[in-house]
Amino acid sequence: MLSTALLTDFLSIAFYLLVGVVFAVIPLIISRLIVRRGKGVFRDATYESGMETIGSAWIQFTAAYYIYALIFLAFDVDVLYLFPVALAYGEYAIRDFVEVVIFVGILSLAIVYAWRKGVFEWQSKE
């Protein structure tokens, strides 16, 4: 038989799960009730910032775009880790500084590798 503490824990988890589902479903129901559904020629048209589209929306991008984005994301996230390290400098400031330099150096190797592979050279298909 389940103990009272274990049953209370399960009920707490079930309650939070139910609250999470309610908070996810209620906005969907409200938007379904409030939003006016349009029917017309422009319903399925491609819309991008109010500008008319030129050509097909189904074009293939080269892998270089995605690699460029991943490199940007990696550096963007890693810079966030540098701030807590800088704030945590304490008794071993020189050692911490050397570790940060090594960390940034390894990240810089990724940039050099991508540069050597030609990721940053944009070639148009025209």
Features:
mainly alpha; 2 domains; 0% strand
Q: In total, how many domains does the architecture comprise? A: 2
Which sheet architecture does the biggest sheet show?
none
Shape: flat
Which residues form runs of ≥5 with pLDDT under 50?
none
Distance between the termini: 72 Å
How many strands? 0
> What percent of residues adopt helix (DSSP H or I)?
55-70%
What share of residues are in beta strands?
under 5%
Structure in words:
The chain is mainly alpha-helical and 126 residues long. The chain has 2 domains: 1-37; 63-117. The protein has helices at 4-34, 63-87, 93-117. 0% of the residues are buried.
Helix and strand topology:
Blueprint (H helix, E strand, L loop, with lengths): L3 H31 L28 H25 L5 H25 L9
Report a brief summary of the structure:
By secondary structure, the chain is mostly helical. The chain has helices spanning 4-34, 63-87, 93-117. It contains three helices and no strands.
